[in-house]
Write a structure and sequence with these properties.
568 residues; alpha/beta
Length: 568
């Protein structure tokens, strides 16, 4: 007697192999048979004309805090994700000394745009060491499996105190040794690796650069030594990838004998630098150093609106008079009060905020339905204003007041320098890249890219109009088996006998995304951008159905992953 049989599905198994029509039988949370199955089962699902895929494995999230209060880990659970990894980019909440929690909160608020009020109310710091943090995570039930990494900045601050956040100081030998020992302890307790940030984009809420930014070769060697001694985990890095950076990281990875995974992004300031990074990744692999580039599937989009973190009008004096009104009252004034309207359009204050917004106009677009994540240059705010002979600020104001809902602009902050996703196509086509810059759980009122696993499937295999399409089986593999294996999770990511029954049943004709909207459902009433999906008929975690046709079943089978996993 099986627990579940999925019959007549188009199986895309996650390995990259061609799809095939087949049945799948599940017993005790594992796939136990694939083929023409005639046995009996507690439940049978007819998946005719549906795709059956592994659950998505999202290895770049920031649920470090949310995992302690939200068993459903939205938005990822709306998008077929059955395993997620957090502790990325060197920020997180362990280890931490009693009384120093606010430093890590301030750091997360600045780097990942999660408000202090949300984190302070949502997190119960009942730990100090990283193993204690893992124990706290393990106590809670949740909808999906989770794994986490040691954040370098937290580790550095724990060992060095205030000096660890002061870039005039380097750790001494004893401090490096202490960091190494603590990392070994964390890896042995189940951490999936260590993450570090080496980008000047990352600053705390009070404006200070992240502690890990200036870690030198000696400090990285200490980290590498911990990975080497335990033979566990990987080194994950978010970096500006300036001169000498990849050499330093590859040197550390080589010493560790463990994998390296770096973010691979096109920066507007250095639009071709990603190619150099990808070349380094390719050479490293050819030299036996397992290295992956984590890539996105669409522009990294900063959403701007009246109520988002980035409001183009927030520094206008006229805005300050109406900002606390309801949407309905505000829209009425903005449509009928000529004086306020003209002031918002023409009386532009000269400050850093308005200069940034104005500078962003050429790569900023109206986000409208049907959603378009590859808009042309002619669709930019700059081009629309020129074509209509209007002030760009008027274009924005009219868009924001076009409905009673929240309306947004999308500023393509990264990955879209030349108004095309051809760069992303090149990144995705590399054998050394995996999916991994969705930042689910972070940038809560700024960026809404956690939906990328859903976006990836229809856009790149079916819907793209301005360039080549990619093979669906290949795309599925990029965010299942390949992401899982990067983190040593060899028990999932593919529909193979003996592996975990983490499964999505997808209505391919209808899979897609809803329009982003603002929700005020975080602790302390905090707001966040959310984007839901369509087309997921069923999602299973370890053989237990957690979602059906977009609605949660209430089942919470997810567990904490401790270290690498193999098929039992």
């Amino acid at each position: 007697m099986y627990d579940l049989i999925i019959k007549n599905g188009n199986i895309i198994d996650g390995t990259g192999s061609p799809r095939k029509m087949s049945d799948i039988a599940v017993k005790d949370g594992k796939i136990c048979e694939i083929g023409k199955i005639s046995g009996t089962s507690n439940r049978i699902i007819n998946a005719e004309n549906k795709f059956v895929t592994p659950g998505w494995v999202d290895i770049h999230t920031h649920y470090d805090g949310q995992a302690t209060w939200d068993p459903y880990l939205t938005p990822s659970s709306w998008h077929g994700v059955t395993t997620c990894v957090f502790g990325n980019c060197g920020v997180g909440f362990a280890p931490v000394k009693k009384g120093k929690e606010n430093f890590l909160i301030n750091l997360m608020e600045g780097v990942e745009d999660i408000p202090e009020t949300v984190l302070s109310e949502g997190i119960d710091f009942c730990w100090e060491t990283f193993p204690e943090y893992l124990n706290a995570l393990e106590k809670s039930k949740r909808i999906m499996d989770i794994g986490t990494q040691v954040p370098h900045s937290a580790l550095r601050f724990f060992v060095m105190g205030e000096d660890g956040a002061n870039h005039l100081y380097k750790p001494n030998e004893n401090q490096i040794s202490n960091m190494k020992s603590l990392l070994e302890e964390a890896l042995n307790a189940g951490a999936l690796g260590i993450s570090t940030s080496r980008t000047t984009k990352h600053k705390s809420a009070d404006g200070n650069l992240v502690p890990s930014l200036n870690a030198d070769d000696k400090e990285l060697a200490g980290i590498a030594e911990a990975l080497k001694n335990t033979k566990k985990g990987l080194l994950q890095c978010n970096s500006d990838m300036g001169p000498g950076e990849m050499e330093l990281l590859i040197q550390a990875a080589k010493h560790s004998g463990q994998p390296l995974s770096v973010l691979l992004i096109q920066y507007n300031e250095f639009p071709e630098r990603w190619r150099d990074t990808l070349n380094y990744i390719s050479r490293a692999n050819k030299n036996g150093i397992i290295t992956t580039g984590q890539v996105g599937s669409r522009p990294i989009g900063v959403l701007m609106g009246f109520n988002t973190s980035v409001n183009p009008f927030s520094s206008h004096e006229a805005w300050k008079k109406i900002k606390d009104l309801s949407k309905k009252e505000r829209n009425k004034i903005l449509k009928n009060d000529i004086n306020i309207r003209n002031s918002l359009i023409n009386d532009i204050p000269e400050n850093a905020h308005t200069k940034w917004v104005s500078h962003a106009f050429p790569l900023t677009y109206l986000l409208q339905e049907p959603l378009n994540y590859e808009p042309t240059k002619e669709m930019s705010i700059t081009s629309i204003a020129a074509r209509l002979n209007k002030n760009p600020w008027e274009i924005i104001l009219d868009h924001f007041t076009s409905s009673e809902d929240d309306e947004f602009l999308m500023h393509t902050f990264e990955n879209y320098t030349h108004n095309s996703l051809d760069v992303i196509a090149e990144m995705l086509e590399s054998e050394y890249t995996i999916c991994g810059v969705g930042d689910a759980g972070a940038h809560v009122a700024t960026i809404c890219d956690a939906s990328y696993p859903t976006f990836m499937v229809p856009f790149w295999s079916r819907d793209r109009k301005r360039g080549r399409l990619l093979n669906l089986e290949y795309l599925v593999s990029k965010q299942t088996l390949k992401t899982a294996r990067t983190y040593g999770l060899k028990d999932r990511g593919a529909l193979i006998e003996g592996m975990r029954a983490d499964i999505n049943i997808i209505d391919y004709e209808n899979i897609g995304l809803t329009k982003p909207c603002l929700s005020y459902d975080l602790p302390a009433g905090g707001k966040r951008l959310i984007q839901k999906s369509t087309g997921y008929n069923h999602t299973f975690v370890k053989g237990i159905e957690v979602s059906q046709n977009g609605e949660f079943t209430g089942e919470l089978p997810g567990k904490l992953i401790r270290g690498s996993q193999s098929i039992n």
